[in-house]
Amino acid sequence: xxxxxxxxxxxxxxxxxxxxxxxxxxxxxxxxxxxxxxxxxxxxxxxxxxxxxxxxxxxxxxxxxxxxxxxxxxxxxxxxxxxxxxxxxxxxxxxxxxxxxxxxxxxxxxxxxxxxxxxxxxxxxxxxxxxxxxxxxxxxxxxxxxxxxxxxxxxxxxxxxxxxxxxxxxxxxxxxxxxxxxxxxxxxxxxxxxxxxxxxxxxxxxxxxxxxxxxxxxxxxxxxxxxxxxxxxxxxxxxxxxxxxxxxxxxxxxxxxxxxxxxxxxxxxxxxxxxxxxxxxxxxxxxxxxxxxxxxxxxxxxxxxxxxxxxxxxxxxxxxxxxxxxxxxxxxxxxxxxxxxxxxxxxxxxxxxxxxxxxxxxxxxxxxxxxxxxxxxxxxxxxxxxxxxxxxxxxxxxxxxxxxxxxxxxxxxxxxxxxxxxxxxxxxxxxxxxxxxxxxxxxxxxxxxxxxxxxxxxxxxxxxxxxxxxxxxxxxxxxxxx
Length: 482
Known about the structure:
The chain is an alpha/beta fold. The protein has helices spanning 48-67, 70-86, 88-99, 103-119, 159-170, 185-194, 212-218, 231-242, 266-278, 298-310, 330-340, 342-346, 379-382, 398-406, 421-428, 463-468; strands at 16-18, 21-23, 28-32, 39-44, 128-132, 136-144, 147-151, 174-178, 203-205, 224-228, 247-251, 256-260, 288-294, 350-352, 369-372, 389-395, 410-411, 413-417, 435-438, 453-454, 457-458, 471-479. It has two domains: 16-252 and 456-477, Aldehyde Dehydrogenase, Chain A, domain 1 (3-Layer(aba) Sandwich), CATH 3.40.605.10; 256-445, 3-Layer(aba) Sandwich (Aldehyde Dehydrogenase, Chain A, domain 2). Strand 3 (28-32) and strand 4 form a beta hairpin.
């Protein structure tokens, strides 16, 4: 009788993972808990030497790992999914401390993580015979790149990293995970867990400060960078990768519009739209960030949105009933305070919330706020706040509202809501975004790619298309006569 493997690990110390060894650095740093502002654990500050060691180990592991079949690599990933699930509650608790997520939000992230971890290994790269006759065969196939790096943000530090790691490894690459300096802990634990599953050098993680990303993007032996973060930083990553012609995938900011038609069930749609707007305090690239409501139902929709949002409880990472937690870090909290200060300066009408009062107590908490029909050229409409503040705007004509929804240099996602599905589809198909939805938003699946248009990104993650993004396409010719 076989004994079930023991995948449990301690969550009390945090280290780099290089070549399946837990390592520290001379200089250490720590972050703070956004709910309490108390210091968390020390983590390494990686140097050029650490980067060189990790890349060298990944490069050495690549030939053997890439020669495994897709089924064999999937077996490793399935075991890794089992290991993650064995530590699920510990990861939820850790997300609470490092990101500020209350248990509901932490559980939501682990649901997404496990969905990716279970479903991604089922994907397969396929060969396509584009010519196959008596004389010759031509095949298009996809071969792995080599050493991949994932630069992962602080808002969904596990989900967004898993969405890079699993496809990269399944495609035959080796992978180095660089977490945000604001949320390093969950990634380091994930990589430590990986030492129980993967051969040395296949999956590694490096913690560091703001200098670490440029060390990785500049390294000549890194074949691809997959980055999720701001537009400004994404442009820097792309420029840094140009000197060595690295492959690059960028998933950047969003300013997602939701268009609400006049025939919707207001109570039912508001319940969904409020959640999709404010989940994780609006700190998700695919949150709804602009709500366009037909003028004939505008007043009732706005009142219902205010009433529903008021029911969402604010609390810290220990509160099982909390929906709103804190902003994840002091940097983003400061940006939002500046954003909120425009309410009075610009004369915006706050239907709920408003400029925060003087900060009292600990934690980066900021009130959920709804702005009533601001001008289209106001910053609350044009810019992405990345916080719990949203404008609701009136519209009358379909052609005009589609034009307004598209009047952004960002194009991550957009949705249309209506009982008349053909009408909603007609409108949605005119929206300039990487993901478009009808009667939903932020709907994702591991086998469906997502990414942005315009300045919201380059390339796509997830799905077979995302898997191909970790490969070079190759034309393979066979002449049947010697």
